[in-house]
Amino acid sequence: MTRWLVTGGAGFIGSNFIRLLVNERPADEIVNLDLLTYAGNLENLVDVHESPRYAFVKGDVSTPAEWDDAVGATPDVLVHFAAESHVDRSIDDATPFLRTNVIGTQTLLDWARRRGVRTFVQVSTDEVYGSLRPDDPPFVETSPIAPNSPYAASKASADLLVRAAAETHGLRTVITRCSNNYGPYQFPEKLLPLMITNAMRDGELPVYGDGQQVRDWIHVDDHCRGVLVAAERGRPGQVYNFGASSEQTNMSMVERVLALLDKPRTLIRHVEDRKGHDRRYAMGYDFSRAELGWEPRVTLEQGLAATVAWYRENEEWWTRVKSGAYREYYDRMYAERLRAPSTANGSADEGVTGAHGARDGDSDSQ
Ligand code: NAD
Ligand code: DAU
Asked: Is the distance from the beta carbon of residue 11 to the nearest atom of ligand 1 less than 6 Å?
């Protein structure tokens, strides 16, 4: 029997990971520690709450004194998903990203060490490697760390603190780095749920810049299986990449969504680009396949069709999520962008790189 402490388990990936544990590790006990920020939602776990092997503790990873008792016996494995996770929000205000992703991770590392946690798993991202040029090979675990957004820099900082805890204190740590996830329960600030839910209401689909940025799209179930094997079989101190060999431009993803929903392309609006927009990510996962026997199973066609079907069947979930504070967020981020005339590449006056110098795979900025 393994005792798991999952931080950020009420968010998108964390809730899918807890569901995987409950279903596939029937003897294990799981505590979910989550602050329930705007992105945390206990409705993501409705089917799990009744399990006697699952408990929820509300708490901030930065303040362990407040939840140490509630967590109970020392966990064997701590899987650290909790984070501020949205790049656009980090451009708007980086402070919460430093507080949770950097200070929070260090505080949690110290707590894990004091408590004698056996394994600390840091759930990280391909964004720590920066941006690729069109012909560059995919990132590998030894690629240089070169983050470009405040979000990516905060995650890279956390990864380095995890490395330091292993080197300095001998804490047993594993770092996983994954590409862009999609699937059920994703907060509709991220590209796919935003486009699916807007299109379902015949709303505009705000594509940043020319929409030719490339991401390596992976279904959340594949990512969660990767985190599970890395937690159980990963070598101490090791980094494991997860990707899906599924590189697509944003425009291609938006067009696929429109086709699945039978909606017209006229909903697409090219809007002002994201500042410092990374042009391309792609993850090499040969090492994870060789060491962990992991590889992605869900094809983009299957996964995207299932995801669009999920948002169609769970309109109540996202209607609730998109009310209240979400409306203020959407207006703040998009009202001005959507007021400007739509252009072929979203940046009529500034060219394809946009007003704020979005990257064209300039990994030499490292
Ligand atoms: P999310 O924003 O959906 O969920 C984050 C969760 O963390 C929420 O439940 C929130 O309430 C909680 N949280 C935030 N601050 C907290 C704090 N101070 N204390 C406790 N809980 C707190 O994020 P996600 O998309 O599920 O991402 C989860 C993790 O995976 C993050 O670390 C992210 O960097 C990483 N990741 C995400 C992706 C992706 O495509 N979404 C890809 C690779 C890695
Ligand atoms: O690569 C892994 C990362 O993927 C994770 O570490 C992050 O937590 C997660 O948020 C995600 O980051 P991205 O910035 O790649 O995801 P996002 O869904 O915000 O955007 C995907 C692409 O779509 C990106 O090129 C920006 C673009 N985009 C996004 C939004 C929200 C648009 O064109 N329009 C939009 O409205």
From this structure: yes
